[in-house]
Every structure is written in structure tokens, then in C-alpha cells.
Amino acid sequence: MSQVVRFSVSLEAQLLEEFDRYCQTHQYPTRSEAVRHLIREKLNQDTWQANEQEVTATLTLIYDHHRSQLVSRLLELQHDHAEHVISTMHVHLDHDRCLEVIVLRGPARQLRGMVDRLRALKGVSFGQLVVASGEPRCAGSTPPVGRQGAS
Ligand code: NI
After folding, report:
1. Choosing a second label site near 14 at 20 to 30 A (CA), which of 44, 70, 89, 113?
2. One-character DSSP codes across 14-36
3. What range defines the domain where residue 88 resides?
4. What is the pLDDT of residues 59-75, one digit of tens each?
């Protein structure tokens, strides 16, 4: 095991309170353990996204469909990467907001570029990527199915 190093972090009191609640909810014995876990998780995900390995992932977006041009930009970006978009699910959250889950498969680096552009669109208030698998596709897997849902 490598040497353990101590460092201090400055946080707003409220953020620390929320973090302590998080540690309690997830039953971390110490803050250090929680911080280690979160840092490893984030670094792992970053590494995966930076390489050429083929991955399967979901991107969950929440956006305001009234925002000018947003829906067409979202669709345009997805069509530009049609070979990597396996399926989408669209849920009308309320009068203004839509939730969209996009299932993606392809080389991690290429997916990352697309995901970064989708998340950066004005009117997108939430965008979370979950990398589900970095394993090579198994021989018996089926080809991508058609897209579902619309804006
Ligand atoms: Ni909608």
C-alpha cells in the first residue's frame, strides 16, 4: 500500500453538513473513506472516458424544452453520432422540463466528445453519464435497435 498523505480541504459549512449526511447515509466509517471512494470513482470514470476502449453508457439529461433551438440541437447532435446512439427514452417531467436517457455505445473518447457537447447546450440543467460497461461486446450480442421516443 502506498504512503498515506494528509491534506486539508476548505468547504462551506453547508456543503460539509451535506457531505456528512451523505457519509452517514452510505455508512462510511470516516470522511476520509468517503473521500477516497469518491475520488477513485471519479478518476476511474475519467480514465475510461479518455481512452479508445469501447464502452456502453447512459447519459441522463434534464432540459427545458421551451429553450429556443434546444430540442433541434439535441436531435442534431444525436443524429451526427447516430452510429453510437443505441436508444433514447423521453419522459415529460412537467410543463417545462423533459428527461431524456440516451444509451450510447462506442469508443470512450468519441462518446465523451458527444456527451460534453450535449451537456453544454444552453437549457440543459442536468447531465449525468454512467459508464455501464467497458467490456468488449460479446459475440452473441444483437445489433443496435432503432431509436425510441421524441421530444
Ligand atoms: Ni418532453
Report:
1. 44
2. HHHHHHHHHHHHTT-SSHHHHHH
3. 54-133
4. 999 999 999 899 999 99
